[in-house]
Amino acid sequence: MATRRYFIRNKLESWLVAAIVVMSLLQLAVLGFASQHLLASVIEEKTGQQALAIARSLASRPDIIHAVEAESVPEPLQRELALLQHGYGASYVVIGNESKIRLFHPVTDRVGQPMQGGDSQAALEGNYYISSSTGSMGPSIRGKAPVINASGDVIGLVSVGFLEKSVSLAIEEQTWLILGVIFVILALAVIAARWIGNRVRSRLFGLQPDEIGRLYAEQEAIFNTVRTGIIAMTLDGKIQRMNQRARVLLFAENEHGGTINNILPQHAEFLLKNTDKHIRGFELFANQQWLVLSRVPLQVQGQMAGLMLTMRPADEVEHLSQQLARVEAFAELLRVQTHDYSNKLNTLAALLQMGNVEKALELISNESQEVQTQVHSLVGRVQTPVLAALLFGKYHKAQEGNVALDISPDTQLSVINDKHLLECLVSIFGNLIDNAIEASQRASSHRPAKVSVSLEEMGNNIVFDVEDSGDGIPAAEYERIFAPSFSSKSDARHGVGMYLVKTHLEGCNGSIEIGESESGGARFSVYIPRTEVSK
After folding, report:
1. How does pLDDT run across 227-286, given as a tens digit for each residue?
2. Dihedral of the alpha carbons of 160, 166, 168, 171, in degrees to the nearest 10
């Protein structure tokens, strides 16, 4: 039962080991059979060649030629032939005359008897050859050579043989060696199969094939049914996977093997920068629509393996998010005003304690009149409440940072009903004014920190100017400031403001010009047509 549980728990490894062992056995069996057959052929061929070489050598000896002519082999020559037979390892050496009568044989009783096997005639015809036949000593491999006298006549033959049983013993010895090699190879195959099985199991996190198949099916179902577009890609931007929702949002075919440059060419550089950092809720304009995109690094076993992009249209959820951001902006505005009013209330309390009622009333009147004048002025000239509130909020933010924000008295803008155009304007104006305030605060010169803003309509265009008293922007960096990785600030949160401005301008077919302001800083002039933005 324990063995059964182990087999089930390690099914992949067990099947892998079994498959490799079976395949190795089949291959080794075929290899062993072929090797044994080839070995037998080689040994038989080598034995025949050896027998023929001995026969040729003996047949050419003068003393043997003389003995055949005399049809008598002297005793010293017989002893020498017995020693040579033993030295060569041959089973027998036989000398016969032209009538195939034995003149010498290892078995003395067989001398004078006819040679057996029926394979001697060709030698008497002057041929040298190898044959296999059965003689008086049994089946053997023979080498036969004719004995030729000084006149060139064939007067007899020499036959040297190796019994097949001795050849079989030689083949059997080599066969055992082959089997030993096969056993070693099989043992190595089992060890390798176990190692491969362990490696595969660790790479698959211990999952079995059926579990992997089920997980893959579940992943495919989830991957292609979620309402979020998902793209998995390598660190250099090569797309590995893309679900159906992403293909619909980006109007892309199956981009497996393609790159992010193919589907998001304008944003590829930004998306492949600083790949170890997260990007959440980044809004961009692509394929004639607004998308909210997030980027998350993919890690496998603690190693950076790629990037995952998720995206969805800027629908009601995004609108709610933007409304929440505006609420936060208003909350910040209230905080600034609370701080300001707290100082004024302290002054007012001091005046009352000193009994200077007239000055206290004058302070209250002036403060109320200033705020009302600002509100009425902005609401009267900028008839879109969201933009008026944006300018009013930036005004107080600048005041808190000791920056004078001057809103041109010529500012004039009628109601904007297109919500997509309004979203563009809020993002563009907000980023440009924030950058101008920060540039004025960081200025290396000692001139007063100041930002000037004007907003008006010229024909069918909205014209927006922002000027600051900062250090300005060198002409060589006019294009670079719109790169996603460019920032003049050290804070890691910065570096995408101007990129967002560029993205929103592309979304509303607007343009921007950069120059030098009258106060020595930078001037940004934005031109946006009052036409419906692509959705």
Report:
1. 788 888 888 888 888 888 888 888 776 555 588 888 888 788 888 888 888 887 777 777
2. -90
Q: Which two tokens stand for residue 476?
A: 């060589």
The alpha-helical segments, DSSP class H, found in 204-308 are: 209-225, 244-250, 260-263, 268-271
CA distances from 110 to 54, 137, 163, 184, 437 (A): 21, 11, 17, 50, 128
Q: Are 283 and 318 in contact (CB under 8 A)?
A: yes
SS3 label, residue 160 = strand
Instruction: Read off the DSSP letter of residue 340.
Output: H
Residue 340 CA to residue 334 CA, distance in Å, equals: 10
In angstroms, what CA-CA distances link 80 with 51, 106, 111, 515? 17, 12, 16, 119
Half-sphere exposure of 100 (CA within 13 A, CB side): 13
| Full-model pTM | 0.45
Beta pairing, strands 404-407 & 450-458: parallel
pLDDT of res. 1: 44
Q: What are the strands, taking DSSP E only, across 301-393?
A: 303-313
Largest CA distance in the chain: 168
Q: Is 268 exposed, middle or buried (0-12, 13-18, 19+ CB in 10 A)?
A: middle
Main-chain dihedrals φ then ψ at residue 25, nearest 5 degrees: -60, -45
> Which of 369-373, 442-446, 471-475 has the highest mean predicted lDDT (pLDDT)?
471-475
**Span 328-340, average pLDDT:** 61
Whether 159 contacts 143, CB under 8 Å? yes
The alpha carbon of residue 369 and the mean position of all alpha carbons in its chain are separated, in whole angstroms, by 67
List b or e across 366-377, with b for residues whose CB sees 16 or more CB atoms inside 10 angstroms: eeeeeeeeeeee
- Rounded Cα distance between 441 and 469, Å, is 9
DSSP 8-state code for residue 475: G
Place of tokens 């005046």: 351
Q: What SS3 state is found at 147?
A: strand
Classify strands 154-163 and 92-97 as parallel, antiparallel or unpaired: antiparallel
What pLDDT, on the 0 to 100 scale, is given for residue 130? Answer: 86
What is the DSSP annotation of 165-222?
HHHHHHHHHHHHHHHHHHHHHHHHHHHHHHHHHHHHHHHTTT--HHHHHHHHHHHHHH
DSSP tally for the chain: helices H, then strands E? 15, 15
**Alpha-carbon gap, residue 179 to 200, rounded angstroms:** 31
Tell me the C-alpha distance between 453 and 394, whole Å.
Answer: 10
Hey, what are 79's tokens? 């002893």
The reported pLDDT for the residue numbered 332 is 60
